[in-house]
Description:
Layout lengths: L3 H6 L15 H12 L10 E6 L2 H10 L5 H4 L2 E8 H34 L3 E5 L4 H8 L5 E10 L13 H4 L4
Helix pairs in contact: 2-5, 3-6
Amino acid sequence: MWDFFETVRHRHSVRKFRTDLPVEVEKLHAILEMACAAPSAGDLQSYHIYAVQDAVRREQLNAAANNQPFIAEAPLSLVFCSDRLRAGHKYGERGETLYALQDATIAAAYAQLAIVAAGLGSTWVGHFNEEKVKESLGIAAELTPVAILCVGYPAELPEETPRRHLDEVVTKL
């Protein structure tokens, strides 16, 4: 079992997945539990997650995301949607426009780290047509897709990419 720092260091965007190995039910459940353990504004969990395993729907997601082949290839896609009304009921406009978005993205980030800890790989997809994603999954009007995580066993491990130095991204005051 890796510690947290190792888990973060081993997270890379995987764009080649093994098509012969589905994500086990137990691992999917554990990943979703970790997503739901993420902090959220007022503990409202202003998001909804679609776990898409159906090949036809994954192909529809692929089409909605400008035909990035790994989306259809990965045996699982997790679609994270913000629930603006849930946050808006308690926090008004800021809840609708910011907190719900933060809640969904934090949950997705926790899921992505849980995916690594479970021995799987993933890629975060943000480039997609919201309306096409909503249509392909039958997503309710009050939900907004904000991220797709393609999940599966890596067929290849990508090379590490360079990161900016801390002094480029941090200002200490």
